[in-house]
Design a protein that fits this description.
By secondary structure, this protein is an all-alpha fold. 72% of the residues lie in helices and 0% in strands. Helix 2 packs across helix 3.
Length: 159
Amino acid sequence: MTAPSLQPTRTFHPALVAFVRFVICGGGVGVASSGVLVLLHDRMPLVLANALVTVVSTVIATELHSRVSFRSDRRGWGVHLQSGLTVAVSYAFTTGALLCLYAVRSEPSAIVQQSVYLSASAIAGAGRFALLRVVVFGERRVGGTRGASLGKTSVAMAA
């Protein structure tokens, strides 16, 4: 009788796995938000509906990113505030990209506008992922230090 052979399993880098979860969670919330915006459009002014949907979707996405994307134990309004700031920076970045486009071309085609917006959104999303992963949901050690650092005790123990 022969022992069953184990097939080697392929493991992906944790950052890549977290990024895929980030895209799925954020994309899902984005699609749901656009549907809610369409439903609210006839019930209230679009500017108010957009602001409401943006705030609620940011809170929901932050919870999903905390629990699913980054599997972090960090919770609370401080996390939501930090995440909200990354959304604000992303908004400023995409708006700046479109303003630069309009400064260069007064009437760009819809394809050019979408290309600039989607490219800026992708760059902003990647930057937001990095900030959320490292700053907002990054591992924190006791005493406020992050990651593995060599203190006097650990150096003495290693010697």
